[in-house]
Amino acid sequence: MKNTQSLCLNYRFRQLYNRGKSQVAPNLVVYCSKNREKTGDNRLGLTVSTKVGKAVIRNAVRRKLREAYRLNEDRVLKGLDIVIVARTRASSAQYKHIEKDMLYCFKKLGILTGNEEEQ
In this structure, are strands 42-47 and 80-86 parallel, antiparallel, or unpaired? Predict the structure, then answer.
């Protein structure tokens, strides 16, 4: 991902959960807020709990989430902290449903650029 860094610090995740805007979809929940990075890059955090499944399933869900974000990264506004939390039904969801839910949440949060009507 060319314009996105990983969000790794626990206190930043907690800040987003408490102060960020959120949107819910059947397969995931998205939290976002503006960051204060001077570079203007986004920071992305992914959360897939053990409720979703064992390690193989969690990693597969994480890969689907990361790929859906990577393919749509240029459509997302810059300078944001984004946390995507997988819900339990994401374990059996197809990639296209995860991507559709992610774009739905991004659109509802108002973080997509003007070309969101492509799909």
Answer: parallel
What are the tokens at 37?
A: 């990075």
Contacts of 76 (CB under 8 A, 6+ apart): 42, 69, 82, 106, 111, 112, 113
Would you say residue 118 lies in a domain?
no
Helix/strand/coil percent split, the chain, to 5: 45, 25, 30
| Residues in the chain, total | 119
CATH number at 45 reads 3.30.230.10
- Entry pTM: 0.91
Does residue 119 form part of some domain?
A: no
Q: How many domains does the chain have?
A: 1
- List, for residues 23-43, the tens digit of each pLDDT value: 999 999 999 999 887 788 999
